[in-house]
């Protein structure tokens, strides 16, 4: 049955029937943690324990890295012909597509997002990512340098070797796919550590990779806590590179781990505080307002490039804010397994309390609470917060400077574009920004002036697999998506041949 016509009763029935994998996946098979320890994977939908998941630590990471190294050195994947590797990755994408509803359901139960988004956005994007990198494998050429006639210089890309990937809980499988796709396409072997809040899809998809004929040991999954499994991966002397998406605080740990171990390559994507700038001459204020609402309330605001700072011209602020509030009222949290729900649960109790703490901070520092601000649906046992809007926010306030990672919008105003750019750039982050204007000159000048990895003009969150995603400043320096991501999983080798 298509996910588009599955009812809430169907999804709940499927949830009850799920066979949830809960072990680590190392060297082609499911295994318990060496210690035998587990941790409770609690659903934010209703507070129930979904599974007792293997709590991997340093010894399990050692086993996974050893399996990855063996597979890499054997050449079973790293030296496989590009055309064959492409076919296998394409088959992997198809296996994910075949299990799309199962994976979507796991995402929803694990981190609380609406099933409509998991089924229609997240998992299709995972399939597209893996298929896109599969198709790229035999389309990327190496180089011949422009030397004199007396020499021939070949510049070749070679895989790093063993890649560790540590991914967040907000888009569990999609963020993993953004690492898996280019890392496997370029011939590496991997050890993936999913977030402890949402490990289930990563554990399941490793089995699908094996079914697609990706050799044993090429993709390993070690669930566990960041301070144990994540740290062990970052410090491991036989890991050649780390790809991390998460907070700036934890990203800095991985830089330290690299320096303390083998100077492994580190690629970081570390969140943001996106300014969404709406000029008085925006082409359509209704469209801009709708984009602003979904830009902060989609996925419960748990999005690294969420438009958490609305920077709006004074002359149109009231009209824009009225429309955003109207949309926000229509996006009240509901049962994530209901296909009509637009906003689901926060990922866990800890994140819920964190967001509520920021809301109290906003109220205490002089910002005007225009909407929301409360925990709701407590009778469900889950973690739900209303869409929340603060007006009269100063950019020095904590709610305007720190990444809240929840459905909390800060509204700031300006009178001229230079002021808007100053507000936009006055942040430790630089992941993304948006500008709404009819004036092409203003659009170009502002896009150049904003210090962000992505700048969207008259849209929000634009892009596809062909465009790189990553940030400036403390948003990190890695790049996911596009052919540029493949550079992060390869090394350049020059072979200089002297000719007679």
Fill in the keyword field for this structure.
single chain, Aldehyde Dehydrogenase, Chain A, domain 1, 16 helices, alpha/beta, 500 residues, 2 domains, 39% helix, Aldehyde Dehydrogenase, Chain A, domain 2, 5-stranded parallel sheet
Please tell me about this protein's structure.
With 500 residues, the chain is of the alpha/beta class. It folds into two domains: 286 residues, Aldehyde Dehydrogenase, Chain A, domain 1 (3-Layer(aba) Sandwich); 190 residues, Aldehyde Dehydrogenase, Chain A, domain 2, CATH 3.40.309.10. It is built from 16 helices and 23 strands. The strands form seven sheets. A seven-stranded mixed sheet has the order 14-17-18-13-12-20-21, sandwiched between helices. It has a five-stranded parallel sheet with strand order 9-8-7-10-11, sandwiched between helices. It is globular and about 70 Å long.
| CATH-scheme architecture of the largest domain | 3-Layer(aba) Sandwich
Cα-based radius of gyration, to the nearest Å: 23 Å
Q: Looking at CATH, which topology of the largest domain would you report?
A: Aldehyde Dehydrogenase, Chain A, domain 1
| Percent of residues in β-strands | 15-25%
Q: In which order are the strands of the major sheet placed?
A: 14-17-18-13-12-20-21
Strand count, sense and barrel status of the largest sheet are: 7 strands, mixed
End-to-end separation in angstroms reads 68 Å
Tally of individual domains = 2
CATH class placement of the largest domain: Alpha Beta
> CATH superfamily name of the largest domain?
Aldehyde Dehydrogenase, Chain A, domain 1
